Amino acid sequence: MGLPKRLTEMQMKFAHLLVTNEGRMTGYECAKEAGYSEDRARVTASELQSPKKYPLVVKYIGEIREEYQKKYAVTFERHITELGKIRQSALNKGAWSAAVNAEVARGKAAGLYIEQKIIRTGKLDDLSESELENRMKEIINEYSPLLEGSSEELKDKVKTKQKQIRLKKVN
Questions:
Q1: Largest CA distance in the chain
Q2: What is the pTM of this model?
Q3: How confident is the model over 79-136, as pLDDT tens digits?
Q4: How far apart are alpha carbons 99 and 124 in whole angstroms?
Q5: Among candidates 53, 10, 50, 52, which has minimal Cα distance to 33?
Q6: DSSP string of 33-75, one letter each residue
Q7: Contacts of 169 (CB under 8 A, 6+ apart)
Q8: Backbone torsions φ then ψ of 4, nearest 5 degrees
Q9: Residue 25, phi then psi, degrees to nearest 5
Q10: Closest alpha carbon to 65 in 16, 31, 111, 14
């Protein structure tokens, strides 16, 4: 018994059901719906998806999936148009908030809005001596009100440490 040259009606129905109901129906349910016996539907579904046993069915499933991906693909033009339709529908219903949200989403998709987040990571060990010295000056200036209430001794220690760093840098 060689490999069949054509798909049967039940195999084609199974393939269509499997692709169109992806995520909503299992292979077993698709096989039952396509007309396979309930007793053997689970095994049949597995076999129909096996490229070794049914290469034509697997190929057909792949072709249908490809068609669906082309048909429902998200492109810039479709996305902007769809958001425009949603905005217009919301305006017609007087749903101003929804209309504004749809318009902002269109703007973001078109690249009119740019969200920028900068995350800095690192250790003091990674800084050069000049960067470290600058950072220490910033900290002293930033927290000087807190240091005002503390002893002069602490301020002197910090300044002495800065001088030592500068002297190492020169030598």
A1: 98
A2: 0.48
A3: 888 888 888 988 899 988 888 888 888 888 877 777 777 666 667 667 777 887 888 8
A4: 48
A5: 10
A6: HHT--TTTHHHHHHHHT-TTT-HHHHHHHHHHHHHHHHHT---
A7: 129, 130, 133
A8: -70, 150
A9: -130, 145
A10: 16
